[in-house]
Amino acid sequence: MRRLIAAIGMSIVATPLLAADPVQIGIGYLGPDRVQSTLSLVEQPAENNGVAGARLAIEDNNTTGKFLNQHFTLDEVRLKEGEDPVATAVTLAGHDSFIIADLPADELLKVADAVRDRGTVLLNAGAIDDRLREQDCRANIIHVAPTRSMLADALGQYLVWKQWRRWLLVVGSHDNDKLYADALRRAAKRFGAKIVEERTFEDTGGARRTDSGVTLIQRQMPVFTQQAPPYDVLVAADESEVFASYLPYRTWDPRPVAGSAGLVPTSWDAAHDQWGAVQIQSRFMKLNSRRMTALDMQAWTAARIIGEATSRTNTGDPRKVFDFIKGPDFSIAAFKGQRLTLRDWNLQLRQPILLADGRMVVSVSPQEGFLHQVSELDTLGVDRPETKCNLH
Amino acid sequence: MWRYQLFGIAIWLTAASPASAFIAYVSNEKDNTVSVIDTDSWTVTKTIKVGQRPRGIEFTRDGKFVMVAVGDDDTIQVIDARTQQIVDTLPSGPDPELFTQDAAGKTLYVANENDNTVTVIDLEKRTRVGNIQVGVEPEGMAVSPDGKTMINTSETTNMAHFIDTATREVVANVLVDSRPRFAEFKRDGSELWVSSEIGGTVSIIDPAKHVVTGKVTFSIPGLRSEAIQPVGIGMTRDGKTAFVALGPANRIAVVDGTSHTVTKYLLVGQRVWHMAFTPDEKYLLTTNGVSNDVSVIDVAAQKVIKTIQVGELPWGITIAP
After folding, report:
1. How many CB pairs under 8 A join A and B?
2. What is the mean pLDDT of residues B19-41?
């Protein structure tokens, strides 16, 4: 009944002549001004990776906002290397109650703590660290990016469904590579895969792209992967972009590659065409003249979360909007075939994860058969009974 | 002379269709064809090659032509129902998905999904006469029984827009649950039903007051609620019974038109989206996108009696009036 009354209250008549000025809603975007270099030329991110998605969402929000007398603007700040994110964030927080952030974990925490007292809410569009949702969780961060554990679980479920249970795990030598490997090990244990052997690929430096390096790589990769115990799939943990892209079709044994190359778990892919996705893919292409990446989609979803909440509450009041986002009635549609909701214990957005090979979406996790008493999306990542987060 | 008369009567007898034969046209989104189904034999009698990505499909009011929106070709193709050949195209605007006509069959309103607009077409002159700015990803289209209001639903804006057909101005916007796909008026104009695919509900809207007065909710034991995704709606002329396609729940919900509660679920094929009644309302045919077939429901018995294989990813269906 309450919902019925609320629903009635939410219908509005918009007349062509509006006496009142539109309610202005400013959303900040805080990200780096540079992108990580990738081994693959076609995967090299655009300079506006991430913010381009937020820009499209602002347009979408404004199309809706026309009917609700609401107007959205995006305040973009791109941090130079070494620039202090906290000072910039505090300035942004002066006029934006919501800031979409693409920052590394430690910087994100510093920023969240610096703006907490003024009630500013951050939307984490970039950082996939589990600790931000566990021991380092914050009440003023909504996590739109998936976690490493969600990505690893999505891959693990598919590999187990496929009965490719024996994994050769190859880990890079940097910290983030090791974190990814931790998540993959957890997924293997959780879903019944066996890591038959682990190998480390040392980053010995050197130029990423050389003119005739491919002949050397063709020799190195088979040698590096030889004499492994019998395995079904090589799972590579290489967030640092040092070796994984060199592995497909070069392994000693003819085996598929997954993880950081080959079959890759991701929140979005330009090849995704299910559940109405073609519409947003073409809107994005029209606005930005390039294909949409996972970071773009994470930023789009972040800005749309605010737009969805302001249209349901019919207000620009940030307190009311944030309360609605955290409430039981909030959900967002994001072209993944089901409504996305927030985990109430750590404000992580539940979401299906795509498994893509660079040309096609091969599958979408959670896989059929992995059951859950509350939501099958909670079979991905760290679940409520396991969480270290306590926001109260 | 009498020989010719007998011959003429014989010709007339063979040409006259049996009373129960109706023809259904099904758009197959993936293989770019339209399947033609004969309701006597319940078989596909012809497969017509059309343009790219056929979705919205509807007979003209006079029953002479079938219009099919071919979104990737940015046009609506017109099929002559007698010859079953494509004879014309309409200036639909880019990426047409669903469309609706007024009762007289003179004006066509087309949702242009990529452009956030509705294109208005004069069907007699076959020309575009205007367009209306609506919300993000317009799809659902309906014209009120009194012809005064046209409804468009926008999937990402989550609204049903009420548009005055005379002025072509948006006069009201009603917020509904996530991802509205389809709009259908009761014949007496007393209610507008709008399905919300991701929200999982059907909103009942008072078309005069522009408020949501109730919601149809669905619950299927053993099936997670996220899989219940209402799309197409079909209503009997007397407004007493409605049928709602529930997408990946693979079922049609039978809904009491007065109490707005579900009385039965009918298992059909996979990812059921749209439906059409035979003109005598004896049968309801549904399009099951993922299983590539059409289910036939006996409306009085509320039972699924047949399944007919069609093309790939069947989307919409229209039956000769």
Report:
1. 97
2. 93
